[in-house]
Amino acid sequence: MPRNRRHNAVRMPPQRAPPPIPVPESNTRSPPHTIYGVMTEEQYAKYMDQVKKYRSRTRPIFINHLNVPVTVYWFRSSEPDKLYTCCEVLSKKDGGYEGPSKITQYMYGTRLKLVWKDSHGNTMHTFTKIMKENQTIHIGNDQSLQWKHSAIKMNYLLKQMVRLGGTNETLYPNLAPLLEMVNDIEIPDITENDKQNAGIPSVYDIE
């Protein structure tokens, strides 16, 4: 009798482990282990926003070669006369590095205006633009810049005289021969920043 019971007993299939619980797609894209556990979709979105924000900003290195402090401002191309204070760069004798600062991270493309007083008390300035990571910005280290800016402005004025008909020998018999020589002057490539620093029209004036 017991032998028949064993023969007629129903055989159960072997038990398998349950399938793994599917993980949401957002969690597979986020860091698997954090001090807060697994990120939700909203937390992951905020996390990525912070990553993108960090990658789009940098901190430039200011080096002042002048014996006077320099104030750094940023401005919008649509409002070039409205300046926002960034920081002060100490004079060369005080170290020439960044001093009191309101801004430490700058977005790529930020336009800066650097302002200082010369030995005669005249306000001087130059422009620059944040273009790369940890960009080094030297202030007043090249005495030839004054000549460069003057040459750029002079070249612009001469080109304008030619454009307005200065080479017309009938109207300007004495001036025309001189202006015809303007095209013989070889001028190196001039960037838009060069134009702005020299005080002549640039693409920044029409944005």
Molecular shape: elongated
Number of DSSP strands? 9
Largest sheet: 5 strands, antiparallel
Content of β-strand: 15-25%
Tell me the structural class: alpha+beta
Strand order of the largest sheet: 5-4-3-7-8
* Structural domains: how many: 3
Residue windows where pLDDT falls under 50 for at least 5 positions: 19-33
Mean pLDDT score: 79
Task: Specify Rg, calculated over alpha carbons.
Answer: 34 Å
Q: Total helix count?
A: 6
Helicity level: 25-40%
SSE pattern: HHHEEEEEEEEEHHH
Please characterize this protein's 3D structure.
With 207 residues, the chain is α+β, with helices and mostly antiparallel strands. It has three domains: 27-55, no CATH class; 59-139; 144-205. The chain has six helices and nine strands; from the N terminus they run αααβββββββββααα. It has helices at residues 2-8, 25-29, 41-55, 144-163, 176-179, 192-198, and strands at 57-58, 61-64, 70-76, 79-89, 98-101, 106-107, 111-117, 123-129, 136-139. A five-stranded antiparallel beta sheet has the order 5-4-3-7-8. It has a two-stranded antiparallel ribbon with strand order 1-6. Strands 2-9 form a two-stranded parallel ribbon. A hairpin with an 8-residue loop joins strand 4 and strand 5 (98-101). The longest helix is centred in the last third of the chain and has 20 residues, at 144-163. It is elongated. The chain starts with a helix and ends in a 9-residue tail after the last helix.
